[in-house]
Amino acid sequence: MKILLLGSGGREHAFAWKIVNSQKCSKLYVAPGNAGTSQIAENVNLSVIDFEGIASFVQTNNIDMVVVGPEEPLVKGIVDYFQNDHELKNIPVIGPSKKGAQLEGSKDFSKKFMERHAIPTAASRTFTKDTIEDGLAYLKTQDLPIVLKADGLAAGKGVLICLSLEEAETSLKEMLLESKFGAASEKVVIEQFLEGIELSVFVATDGKSYKILPEAKDYKRIGEKDTGLNTGGMGAVSPVPFADEQFLQKVERRIVIPTIKGLEEENIRYTGFLFIGLMNVNGDPYVIEYNVRMGDPETQAVLPRIKSDFVDLLHAMGTFNLENYTFNLHQFTTTTIVMVAGGYPGDYEKGDKIEGLDTILADNKSVIFHAGTKLGPGGEIVTNGGRVLAITGIGNDVEEALRHGYETVSKICWKDLYFRKDIGQDILNLLK
């Protein structure tokens, strides 16, 4: 198959790495891609939301399948665009319809969906500028801390955990009256704070059948011991030792099955990946959020653990044949360490030359995934984003995987780079 993959981050490099290792792929294009994808596929200078340009490229190059990495084109309706075009509608597009993408595109939609289908989640209510007085009164009735979520997409920055009533009141006013997160905070979900341990479960589905992929735990905050600002993710570990078989059975029974059934009952087309952000509260799973694509950097930890053919998985989803797909996993552990530009998640520089990549030998101990990188004028690899590289270590256990990952990290440098040195330490402490 000739495949077009949309996106430019670490998640997409991991997808590309997995796709080109399949004998079912004859040619892979990545739009727009990064320096890492350019080494294994052909990058195409197309925006992920240029639907006309993507459609034209698909037709001109006889593309057999389109794989959508990020959420924005899904929320804006790329699947519907293909479905509504008689020349494109038979090309599998891996991702949900615009309505299905509302599970991520609107926190209010996803909370109401969970309520309708009795899926365990934190209690919440949604408010707008017109009902802000009701929202302020509601805050006074809630326990602290309290969570405020911008309804729409806010690049991972639209969630605030407020420790005091004053902070919550100020934040609600800023979000609704001052557009703190732009159009994303025209509605705000006020949500009960759940105490527990976070993890993510990933599901592949064709809308009826599903396969549960390996779970992962990610590390959101910039500082060690989970301090400082939230980021897109500073690292990940898979599998998660505290997510035992009993817990994962609860996740499947209480969350995965009702979610897939709910989508089907509501006639919502959903063909692709579903990321379920969970809180383990005393052994019971609660949904924090849905994402309608794979997570980043969890993908870089999860995909290396998939043993069966990845293109077969994608095609089975896209052709509504997932029931017949055989899913196998490697038994090793993976840990991902994200290397970022100095200043991230605030202001940071781009264009710094990355040294040391050419000295790292290809082995079974680690994989380097590019995120914010591009080729410089002399063909050198330079930084081009906040999260620059994700290094996935592979080992028999968490300790060995971390050792292999950090050994590779130590060989790479550029001006003002930063990474957390404590990824996975909480899990090691739990295992002691």
Automatic annotation (TrEMBL):
The residue ranges of the ATP-grasp domain are 111-319
List the InterPro entries. Answer: ATP-grasp, ATP_grasp_subdomain_1, PreATP-grasp_dom_sf, PRibGlycinamid_synth_ATP-grasp, PRibGlycinamide_synth, PRibGlycinamide_synth_C-dom, PRibGlycinamide_synth_C_sf, PRibGlycinamide_synth_N
Any idea which UniProt keywords this protein has?
ATP-binding, Ligase, Nucleotide-binding, Purine biosynthesis
| Pfam assignment, any one | GARS_C
| GO MF term set | phosphoribosylamine-glycine ligase activity
Quote the EC number: 6.3.4.13
Q: Does the keyword Nucleotide-binding belong to this entry?
A: yes
The reaction(s) catalysed by this protein are: 5-phospho-beta-D-ribosylamine + glycine + ATP = N(1)-(5-phospho-beta-D-ribosyl)glycinamide + ADP + phosphate + H(+)
Q: Does the keyword Nucleotide-binding apply?
A: yes
| EC supergroup of this enzyme | ligase
What family is this?
Belongs to the GARS family.
Q: What is this protein called?
A: Phosphoribosylamine--glycine ligase
Task: Give the species this sequence originates from.
Answer: Fontibacter flavus
**Protein encoded by which gene:** purD
